[in-house]
């Protein structure tokens, strides 16, 4: 073989060996592994993101639950503040009807509210003994064994004192000893006395003092205390 052919053959062999080495995988280099179709780095990145999402949901739920519990605890206090106190919202007291000063119905004033008799000085200095919760009806037994009580007249009065003054006025107009007014009975309930019982008034002028007996809180009677002082009329 000539030198030129030998050199050409050697060159061709070296070229073939170079191609063979290039096609052979390099030793010591590992293939990258894949998980669920993803690279290892991508897989772990997804895991980290999922953990962060789960952690965020847990924290949000905990905060929301805490706020809810705090709101629920605060609610009773707010409700109590809105509730009206027992004494004032739900007042059970009943308003007292206004006392009448005219007409023939309703309840007029009655200042006689004591148990023991008291002295009352009317106009012109005439004294009367007041008896509260007492009525001396016409035809009832008179005091001191003097027979029965009779009515001398009927008037409409709006106070116990004005009823007593009607007795004083009656005696002044009478001008004598005969059939004098010796007392009165007053009924503050005008409706009962005038509208219902049709008595014609609520102030009854009496010819005698009656027997003291229990009556209603709206009843009061008075006895002329200086009957013997006729010259003062």
What is this structure's SSE topology?
Blueprint: H1 3-23, E1 34-35, E2 38-39, H2 40-82, H3 86-89, E3 118-121, E4 127-132, E5 151-155, H4 160-174, E6 183-187, H5 190-196, E7 203-206, E8 219-224
Antiparallel strand pairs: 1-2, 3-4, 4-8, 5-7, 6-7, 6-8
Verbal overview:
- The protein has 233 residues and is of the alpha+beta class.
- The chain has a domain at 118-232: Hepatocyte Growth Factor, CATH 3.50.4.
- 39% of the residues lie in helices and 15% in strands.
- It is built from five helices and eight strands.
- The strands form two sheets. A six-stranded antiparallel beta sheet has the order 3-4-8-6-7-5, covered by helices on one side. Strands 1-2 form a two-stranded antiparallel ribbon.
- A hairpin with a 2-residue loop joins β1 and β2.
- The longest helix has 43 residues, at 40-82.
- The model is unreliable at 18-29 and 74-91 (pLDDT under 50).
